[in-house]
Amino acid sequence: MNRRDQAAFKNARASLRQWAGEDDGSGWTDEEWRRLMERAAAQRTEPIKTGRFPLLRPIVSVAAALVVLVWAAISLLKTRSMELSTRNTAGRAEIAASAIEAFRPLPQIVSLEPAGRDQSASSRPAAPSDTRRLLASAASLPMKDENKPAFTWISPETGLKIVWFTNNNLKLEDLP
Amino acid sequence: MDQKELELIERVLAGDAAAFEPLVTPYRGALIGLASRIVTNPEDAREAVQEALLKAFCYLKSCDPALGFRSWLYQIVVNTARGYRKRAGAELRGLAEAVSEWNPRTLTDDPAAGHEKSQAKDRLRQCLDVLSDREREVFWLREIEELNVEDTARILKSSSISVRVHLNRARRKVLERFRSKYPDLTGENQ
Q: Going by CATH, does the domain composed of B105-179 fall within 1.20.810.10?
């Protein structure tokens, strides 16, 4: 503001003060004012509630906030671990179901004899009684012979395990 | 703080509630004037001052002698009136102004005096309408209530620099408004 502006503003301010003085106290009658004073005086004076230990208040607030945060973190971790265990249980049940499915007996069991020995026999389905006999004889075989080479075949679908024992010339041996 | 005010405060705090009236009555007009600059609706201004006075009585023990009773009281009025302004909302301001134009008391009491009051109120409003809320608060406390910058800043919970900036801006705006509306009152045409 330059000098001219300052002088003009002083005049304007004087007018504003005059108008503010004329507007002074509008909206209040003496009766209303007296009633208001009575209403105020009917109250009790009391200091602003700052508590007994005003310095402790922020510390207590921070501590409370920390407790809430820790509690929230713990409950979040708990919820997540519970979710994981539920998921694992569900996964295990799924695996078990698929295993049961895998070990279900096939409607047709192929011959357990090695291929090439009897082509016609290997292509035709074996009778259940034959299978039982074969398995029983296999069970009676010595489990391990260090001197004899053996070939093991495990069915990826059914888990069926077939062991061929050969002599030293790699020729199949007959069952005892 | 004024010695007389200090004595009155002590009397109120000692249990003499009647001492409250002489303590606040000198500010009766100023309080409503200040509240009227913050909330435009006269009813809200009255309500705000009433609430502020009840609070002032209630919490008189917390009056800071360093700030002074007047500034402390103004601070309560400013805070309470700001609460009313927030509640009223900007969209109601236009309506409140329209309502404030009609003042039945000025018609019933003394028509001539009422007309003068109404004219003064209108002129004040016209000149201060160009200011933002903060500028109006600063301008009123500094230029009309004649408080110093530090007290104004303390009442408005603001910094002295902010008060100076708002005050300069407000002065320019008010002067511009005077030049356009009341050029004779600036003394520049003489």
A: no
Question: For residue range B106-165, what is the model confidence (pLDDT) as tens digits?
Answer: 444 555 656 666 777 788 888 888 999 899 999 999 998 899 999 999 889 899 999 999
Q: Return contacts of A12-15, CB within 8 angstroms, 24+ apart.
A: A12/B127, A12/B174, A12/B175, A12/B178, A12/B182, A12/B185, A12/B186, A13/B143, A13/B174, A15/B123, A15/B178, A15/B182, A15/B185
pTM, whole model, 2 decimals?
0.56
CA distance B68 to B151: 9
Q: Where are the domains of chain B?
A: 1-102, 105-179
Q: Do A16 and B127 touch (CB under 8 A)?
A: yes
Give yes or no on whether B1-102 and B105-179 have one common fold: no
Q: State the CATH class of domain B1-102.
A: mainly alpha
Contact of B113 with chain A, judged by CB distance below 8 Å, is answered with: no
pLDDT confidence band for B74 (50 / 70 / 90): very high
Spell out the alpha helix ranges (H) of chain B.
3-13, 20-24, 28-38, 42-58, 69-88, 93-101, 104-108, 111-128, 133-139, 149-155, 160-181
Instruction: Encode burial over A45-59: b for 16+ CB neighbours within 10 A, e otherwise.
Output: beeeeeeeeeeeeee
> What does the block give as tokens for B26?
């000198």
A2 in B contact zone (CB under 8 Å) = no
Which chain A residues are within 8 Å of B178, Cβ to Cβ?
A: 8, 12, 15
